[in-house]
């Protein structure tokens, strides 16, 4: 009896699992470790790691608590934004697979591109799932829009690592930072208008804009995004102020925790006052601009290479900086690769065997 051809759903499932197969970890892990190894090889001097013996375990404990709080915040946020259609168990799985996808896929795609599929496998219809992901993207962008003026006030010109970069590159970084901020602000404004005021006019605008000769190749994608905005508007307009307040507060909580990790890790080995901690927090905003344009999965290699430039002055020796690069990537990258390898097979067994929602 001939084997029936695969259905579109089966093809989509297979494509998703193919993108997250464990073999895809080899390149980013090897690239990241090579960069860290090179940093150690170039910088190591006997005695430079002496601060490890005087580590302040309170700050290390704070880093662990911040990591845990961040993940719990993500779990609460996705469950709340999804209007409690997910159980806490499902929300945990969604966040772990989402983070794993962010580590495995290029930074430009990240876990957000995979998130609607993940939610659909949990029993949430695609249209609603797209609306929920759009809410997370909107709130994430608004956090960035609000925080950038605050960190500019905190750090001023020190927001950019003049001490480690040539003047020309600092100017380029400043321009990239300004352009990214403008783009995120415009995009967030467009999403707000599309969701709450007139989604169909935004869809028409996108189609007309991407009908121009230089942009025509992305016209179909633009139309799809416009359709997603229309569906999201219909799904979300009825939610009251309490929904948006909780979603906004949880977003601010998780992103503040995310940006605070580096400061906690550095403070564990280098004495630090609150002003320096806030300064590191502010500089982390510009550091993330580098990661946004990274083409490697999870920013592997680029995140490690850029770290000393942005934070080396706060740490002291180059050897300790190399160690903190490695420690930072362990708790924010390699940890989620390991967790993903634990959660992914169990999640696949549950959602594919039982059809999603329990």
Brief summary of the model shown:
The chain is mainly alpha-helical and 358 residues long.
Question: What features would you describe in this structure?
Answer:
With 358 residues, the protein is mainly alpha-helical. It has one domain (53-354). It contains 13 helices and no strands. The chain has helices at residues 8-19, 26-43, 57-81, 88-104, 115-121, 126-155, 167-196, 199-209, 219-236, 241-267, 274-292, 302-315, 318-354. The two termini are 34 Å apart. Residues 1-8 have low confidence and may be disordered. The chain crosses the membrane at residues 25-41, 57-76, 97-119, 142-160, 172-196, 259-282, 289-311, 323-344.
The portion of residues forming beta strands comes to under 5%
Net shape: globular
Structural class: mainly alpha
- Kindly state the percentage of residues in helix: over 70%
Radius of gyration: 22 Å
Order of H and E elements:
HHHHHHHHHHHHH
Helix tally equals 13
How many discrete structural domains? 1
Low-confidence stretches: 1-8
Count of beta strands = 0
Amino-to-carboxy terminus distance: 34 Å
Largest sheet: none
- Rounded mean pLDDT is 82
């Amino acid at each position: 009896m001939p084997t029936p051809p695969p259905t579109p759903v089966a093809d989509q499932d297979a494509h998703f699992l193919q993108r997250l197969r464990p073999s895809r970890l080899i390149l980013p892990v090897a690239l990241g470790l090579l960069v860290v190894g090179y940093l150690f090889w170039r910088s190591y001097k006997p005695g430079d790691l002496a601060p490890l013996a005087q580590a302040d375990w309170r700050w290390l404990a704070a880093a662990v608590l911040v990591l845990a709080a961040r993940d719990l915040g993500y779990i609460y946020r996705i469950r709340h934004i999804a209007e409690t259609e997910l159980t806490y168990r499902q929300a945990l799985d969604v966040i772990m697979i989402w983070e794993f996808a962010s580590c495995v896929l290029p930074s430009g795609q990240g876990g957000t591109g995979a998130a609607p599929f993940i939610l659909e496998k949990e029993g949430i219809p695609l249209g609603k799932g797209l609306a929920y992901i759009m809410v997370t993207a909107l709130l994430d962008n608004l956090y960035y829009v609000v925080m950038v003026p605050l960190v500019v006030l905190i750090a001023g010109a020190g927001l950019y690592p003049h001490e480690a970069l040539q003047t020309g590159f600092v100017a380029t970084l400043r321009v990239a930072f300004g352009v990214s901020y403008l783009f995120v602000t415009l995009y967030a404004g467009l999403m707000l208008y599309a969701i709450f005021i007139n989604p169909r006019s935004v869809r028409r605008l996108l189609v007309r804009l991407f009908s121009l000769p230089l942009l025509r190749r992305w016209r179909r994608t633009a139309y799809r995004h416009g359709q997603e905005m229309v569906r999201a508007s219909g799904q979300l307009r009825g939610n009251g102020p309490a929904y948006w307040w909780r979603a906004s507060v949880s977003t601010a909580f998780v992103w503040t925790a995310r940006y605070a990790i580096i400061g906690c890790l550095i403070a564990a080995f280098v004495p630090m006052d609150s002003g320096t901690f806030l300064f590191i927090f502010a500089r982390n905003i510009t550091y993330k601009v580098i990661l946004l344009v990274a083409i490697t999965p999870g920013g592997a290699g680029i995140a490690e290479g850029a770290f000393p430039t942005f934070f080396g002055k706060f740490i002291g020796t180059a050897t300790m900086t190399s160690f903190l690069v490695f420690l930072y990537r362990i708790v924010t990258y390699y940890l989620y690769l390991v967790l993903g390898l634990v959660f992914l097979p169990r999640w696949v067994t549950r959602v594919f065997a039982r059809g999603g929602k329990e």
